[in-house]
Amino acid sequence: MKILVVEDDNVQRDLLVGALKKEYNISGVPSGEAAVELLQREVYDIILMDMNLGTTDGITTMKEIHKINPEIIIIIITAYGNVENAVNAIKEGAYDYLTKPIDLTKLKLTIKRAIETKQLTQENKILKTEIGEKYGFDNIIGNSTAIQEVLNQVARVSKSSSTVLILGESGTGKELIAKAIHYSSLRTAYPFVPVACAALPDTLLEAELFGYEKGAFTGAQQERKGRFEIADKGTLFLDEIGDIPLSTQVKLLRVLQEQEFEKLGSNKPIKVDVRVISATNQPLEQRIKEGTFREDLYYRLNVVPIIIPPLRERKEDISLLIEHFLKKYGTKIGKTIEGINSEAKEILLRYNWPGNVRELENIIERAVVMTRNNIIQPDDLPKTVLTTGKAKDNFSIEYMEKLHIEEVLKKTNWNLTKSAELLKIHRNTLREKIRNLHIVK
Ligand SMILES: Nc1ncnc2c1ncn2[C@@H]1O[C@H](COP(=O)(O)OP(=O)(O)OP(=O)(O)O)[C@@H](O)[C@H]1O
Ligand SMILES: [Mg+2]
After folding, report:
1. Would the CATH topology of 136-307 be identical to that of 311-389?
2. CATH number corresponding to 2-125
3. Mean pLDDT confidence for 154-175
4. What is 136-307's CATH topology?
């Protein structure tokens, strides 16, 4: 919660800011004009405003503030005996009023009540939209008990702010689920901020998460906000959390514990209200045993675990997913695809899906682009899927993945950037796979 004190008396202003700065992110300005100017740049939740601001009239300032942000809560501070003035202000949209000298207990109570009211209005707003559409829920396809259970969990956790850890192989839909949680939560009016932790080198990751002051390191030419600050009141999605270095893990633990951090190169703590959702395809418990992942951080992140099973363990979802992607890409590309023939579908059902839903999506997209028919045929499917999907014996997942990567590499003439793009994986991940799967030119 961010509070702004608008008070022309410097002593009074400092006293108010001082009394509340432990509990809230609070700052002060000396005039109505300064307040209006600031509110055009920054979002605040609550305004504590003196009615007698010298030059400007309190009611006018209030109206201007509400024009900028109709949802902001304004609490009026007025001289004792000037209740008439306060009543007017309330008629004009102020939330409540307090008389001078300010009773701190009463002030804190009024703020608390204001916050509750604000949350309630937000909740109502969400309930209203919920009737119309189901957020990300509509895009999550699957009738397997596994997916239905995941959806139940999403619905249950979304109304709270608890930390969620999403576990699942690559391409199972971890980011999709994280978004569904955010967009069905009370935080939906605030940002969903993803961070691909594995894609960044250690030092850049910290700069990205916490931000930095000008001159904090070579190249820091101007101050920058970190993702934690940007995600204030919203959700921070830490993707590939298993890959972050131990030094950053320590800092992360502290933010989770205290909801407070410092920018690189600064010792001024910044308070934030951020819900953290993290995801990984790594066995974190094993990483803990190896000493590359902190156990205390694991427990902090893993308050609510959501496990998304691989597609090969919920093959009953494949048919619905095929239909969904045929429609999606048919519309996108402008082709009317009526369906898929039974032989082609059989092949897809038999395939082992090492790349999970993402791989299925890519294959359907490719089929829609390639096909000359309005019903997808086996010929429209990639060779790897054909050979492994047709084969009676079960190949290993690694082998199928290897075939698929080899095919893509061949197609792009071993252009790693292009291949990584087609495979929708990071270039470094591709390099690693080439090495681990012993793929040679
Ligand atoms: N149940 C589902 N219904 C519809 N689409 C899905 C489903 N699961 C995944 N997808 C789609 O598959 C693709 C991959 O999903 P997502 O990016 O969420 O996976 P991920 O688990 O984060 O993968 P990675 O670990 O590789 O980052 C996305 O385009 C997503 O929309
Ligand atoms: Mg992802």
Report:
1. no
2. 3.40.50.2300
3. 93
4. Rossmann fold (3.40.50)
Whole-structure pTM value: 0.62
Amino acid at position 68, single letter: I
Q: How many CB atoms lie within 10 A of CB 103?
A: 12
| Dihedral in degrees, nearest 10, Cα atoms 204, 208, 213, 216 | -10
Q: Give 253-309 pLDDT, tens digit per residue.
A: 999 999 999 999 999 999 999 999 999 999 999 999 999 999 999 999 999 999 999
421 or 333: whose pLDDT is higher? 421
Token reading at 32: 């109505």
Å from CA of 238 to ligand 2 middle: 10
Task: Examine the pLDDT at 105 and tell me if it is beyond 80.
Answer: yes
CA distance 332 to 327: 8
Tell me the ligand closest to 318's alpha carbon.
Answer: 1
Q: Which fold has domain 396-441?
A: Arc Repressor Mutant, subunit A (1.10.10)
- Judge contact between 216 and 189, C-beta under 8 A: no
Instruction: Kindly list the domain boundaries of the chain, sorted by start residue.
Output: 2-125, 136-307, 311-389, 396-441
Instruction: Tell me the CATH number for domain 311-389.
Output: 1.10.8.60
Q: Is 300 helix (H, G, I), strand (E, B) or coil?
A: helix
The tokens of 176 are what?
């999709």
Q: List residues near ligand 1 (CB under 6 A).
A: 139-142, 147, 168, 170-176, 281, 357-358, 361
**Model pLDDT, residue 91:** 80
User: DSSP code of 143?
Assistant: -
Q: Which residue has the tokens 């308070």?
A: 271
pLDDT tens for 14-56 read 999 999 999 999 999 999 999 999 998 888 999 999 988 776 6
Asked if 31 and 55 touch (Cβ cutoff 8 Å), the reply is yes
Cα(356) to ligand 1 centroid in Å equals 8
